[in-house]
């Protein structure tokens, strides 16, 4: 009985092993691709990865950084909005700088008032006082001379009629009156001449320095309001009201790096595609106005013909697509820029990665 049971168990194990091997040997049918990969549309074409950018004559997008540090108090625009050159994009808290500018303006105004005062000299009232003092000194001199003449005439008639003491007093009084008249005369001439030219020049320099300090402070105050440097579309706003920004940009919580506060795309009519051609394939290119290229939008079956714009004649490491500043890259690429007409029906935006095939020469 026992050998028969063992034989049955062994046979059952064999059957289970065969079934298990069959089941695990089955392969599920592969899932169809979400989209067909881009096919080379040219008999001879070079594949390149491309990134969509705003179209302009040089550079990529307009990255805006503040020239001063501060806290954002207002952002009157929104992403995707078309703005004209000079439109206010954001405002920083300028309370301290505004107070400084107002203080310097007041100093400049005070210096200017002092300069005008010097140029307006002599003041009419001061001049009238000086003139009156001159007339009074002249009258005193005449009175002293008249008194001296009387004393001298009396002395000549009768030396005993006038004491020597009184005669000397009359002579001294006449001399004092004459000296006083000279002082008043010079003071009158000085008043009539107005401010000293060196005082005027010194005040002019003081006013000029204060005015320039105010203008400099006013120019710095204007930098707390950031305006659009050109017509374009606001592509990205990397900060919010209340955020602190600096000349190096705004701090990104996720990348722990600094990004531009606002990015603007200047062209409304076109978008460009920056293609990166591997350095080992550069010799197969033939940059010319008629160079053919076609862009394929990933995840779709949409392809768009591209118009050649220019070659950026500088081979550089391929780090632009990953945006990793510390990435070690061995591949060096040549940027080639194409463009295509912007369309609301075309689902493509600046910063999007696309596949590009470029026709060989």
- Beta fraction: 15-25%
Poorly predicted parts: none
Query: CATH fold name of the largest domain, please?
Result: Elongation Factor Tu (Ef-tu), domain 3
State mean pLDDT (0 to 100 scale): 86
N-to-C CA distance: 86 Å
CATH superfamily of the largest domain: Efflux pump adaptor protein, beta barrel domain
- Can you tell me the overall shape? rod-shaped
Number of helices: 5
Largest sheet: 6 strands, antiparallel, barrel
> What is the β-strand count?
17
Please state the second-level CATH architecture of the largest domain: Beta Barrel
Structural features, described:
By secondary structure, this protein is of the alpha+beta class. It folds into three domains: 32-61 and 266-361, Efflux pump adaptor protein, beta barrel domain (Elongation Factor Tu (Ef-tu), domain 3, Beta Barrel); 65-93 and 224-264, RNA polymerase II/Efflux pump adaptor protein, barrel-sandwich hybrid domain (OB fold (Dihydrolipoamide Acetyltransferase, E2P), Beta Barrel), CATH 2.40.50.100; 122-194, Methane Monooxygenase Hydroxylase, Chain G, domain 1 (Up-down Bundle). The protein has helices spanning 2-25, 95-120, 124-157, 164-193, 197-222, and strands at residues 45-54, 62-64, 70-74, 82-83, 88-92, 225-227, 232-237, 244-245, 250-251, 258-259, 262-265, 270-278, 292-296, 303-311, 316-317, 332-341, 353-359. Strands 1-12-16-14-13-17 form a six-stranded antiparallel β-barrel. Strands 2-11-7-4 form a four-stranded antiparallel sheet, with no helix packed on it. A four-stranded antiparallel sheet has the order 6-5-3-8, with no helix packed on it. A hairpin with a 6-residue loop joins strand 13 and strand 14 (303-311). The chain is rod-shaped. The protein starts with a helix and ends with a strand.
């Amino acid at each position: 009985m026992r050998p028969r049971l063992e034989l049955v168990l062994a046979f059952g194990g064999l059957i289970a092993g065969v079934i298990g091997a069959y089941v695990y040997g089955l392969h599920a049918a592969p899932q169809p691709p979400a989209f067909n990969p881009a096919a080379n549309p040219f008999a001879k074409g070079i594949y390149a990865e491309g990134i969509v950018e705003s179209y302009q004559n040089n550079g990529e997008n307009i990255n805006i950084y503040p020239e001063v540090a501060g806290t954002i108090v207002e952002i009157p625009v929104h992403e995707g909005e078309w703005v004209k050159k000079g439109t206010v994009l954001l405002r920083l808290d300028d309370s301290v700088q505004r107070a400084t500018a107002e203080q310097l303006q007041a100093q400049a105004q005070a210096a200017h008032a002092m300069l005008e005062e010097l140029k307006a000299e002599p003041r009419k009232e001061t001049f009238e006082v000086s003139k009156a003092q001159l007339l009074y000194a002249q009258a005193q001199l005449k009175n002293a001379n008249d008194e001296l003449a009387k004393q001298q005439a009396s002395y000549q008639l009768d030396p005993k009629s006038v004491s020597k003491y009184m005669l000397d007093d009359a002579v001294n009084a006449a001399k004092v009156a004459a000296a006083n008249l000279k002082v008043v005369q010079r003071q009158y001439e000085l008043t009539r001449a107005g401010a000293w030219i060196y005082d005027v020049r010194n005040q002019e320099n003081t006013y000029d320095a204060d005015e320039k300090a105010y203008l400099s402070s006013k120019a710095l105050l204007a930098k707390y309001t950031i305006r659009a440097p050109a017509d374009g579309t606001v592509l990205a706003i990397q900060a919010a009201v209340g955020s602190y920004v600096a000349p190096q940009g705004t701090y990104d919580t996720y990348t722990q790096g600094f990004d531009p506060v606002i990015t603007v795309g200047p062209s409304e009519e076109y978008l460009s595609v920056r293609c990166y051609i591997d350095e080992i394939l550069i010799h197969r290119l033939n940059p010319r106005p008629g160079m053919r290229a076609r862009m394929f939008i990933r995840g779709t079956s949409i392809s768009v013909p591209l118009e050649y714009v220019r070659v950026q004649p500088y081979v550089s490491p391929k780090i632009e697509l990953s945006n990793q500043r510390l990435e070690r890259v061995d591949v060096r690429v040549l940027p080639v820029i194409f463009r295509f007409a912007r369309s609301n029906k075309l689902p493509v935006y600046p910063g999007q990665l696309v596949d590009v095939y470029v026709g060989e020469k």
